[in-house]
Amino acid sequence: MKQFLLLLLFICISFIQFGDAQEGGPAYKHLYRQAEDLYNSENPTPESDSLAFDKYGELIKILETTRQHDSTLVDAYTKAALLKQMKGEDSIAIIYFNKGLKMAAAVHDTLRFLPLLYCGSSYYILNQFDSARHCYQQAESIIERYPHLPERERLYNKIGTLYYEEGNFRQSLNYFSKALSLLDTTVASNNFLLVNYYNNIAVTYKKLGRYQEALNTYRRMLRYRINLDGLMHNIATVYLDLQQPAQALQFLHTLRTQGQQQYNNLAFAHLQLGNTDSAALYVQKAFKSRAHNFKTTINGLSWYCLGMIQERRKQYAQALQTYHRSVMELDPDFYDTSVSSNPSQYKGLHSFTDLFNALTAKARVQRLLFEQNKNLPLLEHSLNTWESALLLARTVQQGYEADESRLFLNRNLQPASEEATSTALALYHAQPSAERLEKVFRLAESSKAAVLQIRLQQTSVASLPGMPAGIIAEQKKQQLLLARLQVQYEQTTDTLLLSSLRQQMRDQEIRLSEVNQQLNNDPNYAAARAETVPLEIEDLQRSLPSDMAMLSYYFIKDKWLAFVLRKNGLFAAVLPDDSTTAALPANLRMQLSSPELSGSQLQAPVASLYQWLIAPVLPYLQNASRLMIIPDHDLQYLPFEILAGANGKRLQEDFAISYNYSAVFAAMRSGKASRTTKQLGMAPFAGQRNQYAGNFAALPASAEEIKAVSGEQLLDSMATKKAFARMASSYNIIHLATHASANDREPQNSFIAFFPSGSDTSYKLFQPEIYNLDLGQAKLVILSACETGHGQFVHGEGMMSLARAFSYAGCRSVITSLWKADDAATAYITRRLHHYLEAGKPKDVALQQAKLDYLADGFIPNRLKIPAYWSHLVLIGDPTALRSSSFPIYALFIAVGVLLVIVWFVVKRINKKPRGLHSRD
Fold first, then answer.
1. Residue 326: CB partners within 8 Å, gap ≥ 6?
2. Quick check: 825 pLDDT over 60?
3. How far apart, in whole angstroms, are the C-alpha atoms of residue 275 and residue 280?
C-alpha cells in the first residue's frame, strides 16, 4: 500500500513530452515502451518495479553511448531514481538524480525542476538537510522564472518541512499554506495531497501550541478516509502534548499498523501515565521495528524515550549513556561516544526540537548524578552540555528570518538558560573563582534580549564592506512591504479584506525568505553572519568609566542575583528571599502613574525595595556616581531613581542612572562624543486648537519643549509621519514631543502619533514600522510622548515597548516615558536635558541634572514634585556624551602653548631695548 501511494505521488513526472522517444532504432523504442509500461502499472509490485528499473538501466546504457535523445535520458535517470527512492535506497537514488540533473542542464532548465524536487526528498530522508535545502533552492529559482510548472505546490510543501525541522514553525506554516493554495482541490485525484498538506498544517499548529486548531484540522480530514492511521496517530500526539495520555492511547490503539514512530508514542503515553514497565515494553518494540540502519530522528526518539524511562527509575548512569546515544542519533555530524563530549558546533540544519530536548535531558541527569555523589567533574560536564544545547538554539535562532519565530523560540529557551546559569552558579559555589563567576555573569547576560542582539549583529554585518548591497537593499524593501501589510491587517475589520491580507502577508514572508536565502548564499555575508562575538568582560571593564558601576539583576529559578561590574572586578550577591517585596515593582509602576499619590505614600514601598535591591550591593558601589542598571522580569517596570534608604535620600541624588537590555549591548554600542550633532525636533500637537482629529488633545508645552533642539524644528501640520520617515535616518538627535499609545496585549498596535490627517496608518507610526526604520546615525531619540517605555513583557526578551523598537532600528540610546506624565513637567525636564547635553555632559548625567533642577526650582509647587511628575523619563542604552566639551582639554593645552610663545616673544623684545635712554619727563 505504501509503495502504491508513493507511486501515485511521483507518477506525474511523466508530464514531460518526450517526442523524440518515438525516434531511433527498434531496440531503443522497445526498451522505453517496456520500462514505461512497468513503471505506470496499475498494480505495481516489487517485482514489476525491479523489472522497470532494469529496463531503464538498459535504456540508459544505450542512450549514454549514442548521446542521443537527451530529454529521454533525463526521464530514464529520474524514473530509475524514483524507483530506488520508493524502495528506500535513497543513496543510490541520489546518484541517478544527479546524473539526470547534469544531462537536463544541457537541454533546458525546466527539465531540472522535478529531479531537484525529488532529489531533495532523498537528501531529506537521509537527514542531509543542507543538501536538501540546496536542491529546493535551485528548484525555487526555476519556479520564479517558470511559475506555471506542474507540481510547484510540492516544492512549497517540501520547503515547509525543512523550516519545520529547524523549529521555524511560523515560516513552515507559510509554506504549507502556500502549497495548499496552489493545489487544485476540485480534482479528486488530488485528495491524497490535500490531506497531506492539511496534515502538515495541523502538525505545525501543534508545535505552535494552537492545539484546538490542530485537532479541528485533523478531524476535517478524516472524512476523506485517506491515510486514516496517520491522522489518528497525529491526533494522539496532540493529546500527548496536552498531557492527556488516556485520550492519546484511545487513538493509538485504533491504528491498524504499528511502526517505530507509533511504538515511541505509545511509550511516551505510558510514561505520562507513570507506567514505566509498559513504556519500556513499547520502546523495545520500537527498536525491533527500526526500518533503517542509518541515523534517523525516529530512532533518536526511541533512545530519548528509553533515557526518560531510566531517569524515572533513577538509573541516572544508564540514562546518561542513553541520552548521549540519542544525541548521536539526532545530530548527523556527531559521532563521539564519550558521554563527557558534546557537539561543539552546528552547521546547517538539524532536527532542532528533538536534539535540543535530548541535550537538555543529558545535562539534567549529569547534574542529578552530581547531586548523588558530589563528583565535581559531573557538574562541569552538565554545564558543558547545557552550553551545547544553548549553542544549538542560538545557531538555529540566528538562521530565522522573522522575529516572531525567534521570539517563539526564545520563550521555550528560557528554562534552559536558567538551568545553565543555575548549574554555573552551583559550580561557582562549589569552587569559587573569578573565572567561574564570570561564566555565571556571561550566561545570565547572554540570555537577555537575544532577539535584539541578533538583529543588531545582523544590522552591523550588513554595513560591512564587501556585502551584497543590492540584495541587502531588496531585503530592506521586502521588510518594509511586510511591515505595511502587518499594519493594514491589524487595522482592518472587514472579513474578506482580512483573508486577502493574510494571504498577502504569507506570500510576502515567503518572498522575504527567498531574498534572505540569496543573502545567506553570499559567502562574505554568510561568514560574517556566522561569527559570534562573545561577551568579553575584560573589554567591558576597560570601557566602563571609573565613576560608573554596572548593576545587573537576574531571576534564576527561585532566587534573585545581583551582579556589580566595576573596573576593578566583578561582584555578585544573592538577594534576600522576599516574595512580598519582589511583587512590589509591577504594582508600584501603576501607583506612580497616578499624580494623586503623594510622596509620603511611596515611602514604605520604595524603602523596602531599596533594602532588597540596593543595600546588598552598596559595598561594591563605593566611589561610583553613575549606575547602568540592567533589570530583569518585573524590575523593568521600576524607575530605580525613586528608591530611597533609611535617610530618605533617593538614588536620583547620588547616582546618574541609565538602563540597558543586557551587558552585551553595553559592550556592542558604546559611542563617542563629537563636536557637532544634527538635531531634529517634532511637535505635532503644538498648535492653538483645543482638539485634534483622532481625539488627540493639544500639547501646548511641546512647542517650548523642542525649542531647545538646536536644529530642525517641525511644529503642528509640518510634523507629519511622512516627513519623519523621510528625515529620520539623517539625524543624530531626534526629539518627538507627541502622543503615543502602548498596547500591552498586542504590541504591534502600539504607535506614535504625528499630525493627524487621513487614515490611522497615514499619521500613526506603528511598532512594526519603527522596526524597519534606518536609525544607524541616531545617537539619541527622546520620546517625551506618554508610555513609550511601557509594553508587553516577554520572558527572556524584555519589554516589547516603542523604546525597544527604536533600539531595534539602530538607535544607540532612547529617553522614554514609563507612564502618562504631565506635559509641563516633561517639557521643563527635557529643556534642561538639552542644555546639559549641549554642554557636553554624558546623557545619564544630563538627565539626572535636569531632574534635580526641576526638583530644586522654587517656582514649582511641591505638589508637582512627587515622583509621578519627574521619574517617568528614563535613559535606555549608551550613556556617553553626545558632544565633546565646547573647549576640550587639547584645546586648552594649545592655548597655553600659544600664550607661552607670546610671552617669550614679548620678553625677548623688552630685553633688546637700548639702555641709558630716558624719557622727557
1. 300, 301, 303, 304, 307, 358, 361, 362
2. yes
3. 9
Please tell me whether residues 527 and 542 are part of one structural domain.
Answer: no
Q: Cβ distance 116 to 159 under 8 Å? A: no
Could you give the angle at the alpha carbon of 724 between the alpha carbons of 721 and 729, nearest 5°?
Answer: 145
Same domain, 139 and 37: yes
Question: What CATH number does the domain containing 851 carry?
Answer: 3.40.50.1460
Q: Which residues make Cβ contacts (< 8 Å) with residue 634, sequence separation at least 6?
A: 582, 583, 585, 586, 793
Cα dihedral 106→110→115→119 (10° resolution): 110
Beta strand 548-556 with 626-630: parallel, antiparallel or unpaired?
parallel
pLDDT score at 908 = 57
- 749, 760 in Cβ contact below 8 A? no
Type of residue found at 628 = M
Range of the domain at 762: 671-877
**Amino acid letter, residue 207:** K
pLDDT for res 914: 43
CB 589 within 8 A of CB 819: yes
The sign of the dihedral angle between the CA atoms of 323, 325, 326, 327 is positive
CA 859 vs. chain centroid, Å, equals 49
Same domain (yes/no): 400, 528: yes
Residue 899 pLDDT: 61
pLDDT by residue (tens digit) across 552-562? 999 988 889 99
User: Which is more confidently placed, 277 or 601?
Assistant: 277
Q: Which set of grid coordinates corresponds to residue 20?
A: 523524440
Q: Indicate the range of 164-178, 393-407, 509-523 predicted with least confidence.
A: 393-407
**What residue type is 712 in one-letter code?**
E
The dihedral formed by the CA atoms of 397, 398, 400 and 405, expressed in degrees to the nearest 10: 40
Residue 443 lies in a domain: yes
Instruction: Say which CATH number the domain at 55 has.
Output: 1.25.40.10
Q: Are 837 and 883 in contact (CB under 8 A)?
A: yes
Q: What is the dihedral of CA 488, 490, 496, 497, to 10 degrees?
A: 0
Task: Give CA angle at 529 (527, 535), nearest 5°.
Answer: 115
Query: Based on the structure, what is the number of domains in the chain?
Result: 5
* 701 and 564 inside one domain: no
* Residues 848-875, mean pLDDT to the nearest whole number: 93
Cα separation, 236 vs 63, in Å, equals 51
**Residue among 329, 263, 266, 264 at smallest CA distance from 300:** 329
16 contact partners, CB below 8 Å, separation of at least 6: 71, 74, 75, 111, 114
Q: What is the dihedral of CA 56, 57, 63, 67, to 10 degrees?
A: 130
316 and 463 belong to one structural domain: yes
- Cα separation, 622 vs 423, in Å, equals 30
Q: Let me know: does 552 contact 445? Beta carbons within 8 Å.
A: yes
Residues 18 and 72 in one domain: yes
Enclosing H/E stretch for 231:
helix 228-241
Q: Quick one: cell of 178?
A: 502556500
Q: Of 121, 146, 171, which residue is a domain's last?
A: 146
Kindly state the DSSP code that residue 744 receives in the 8-state scheme: S
**Alpha helices per DSSP H over 531-656:** 537-543, 579-582, 584-592, 599-609, 651-654
CB 741 within 8 A of CB 710: no
- Rounded CA-CA distance 577/51 in Å is 75
**How many angstroms separate the Cα of 77 from the Cα of each of 11, 74, 84?**
14, 5, 11
* Rounded distance between C-alpha atoms, residue 155 and residue 169, angstroms: 17
Domain boundary among 503, 532, 561: 532
Contacts of 684 (CB under 8 A, 6+ apart): 715, 716, 719, 720, 738, 739, 753, 754, 755, 756
88 within 8 A of 115, measured Cβ to Cβ: no
Do 316 and 455 sit in the same domain of this protein?
A: yes
Tell me the pLDDT of the chain averaged across its residues.
86
- Check if the beta carbon of residue 535 is closer than 8 Å to that of residue 663: yes
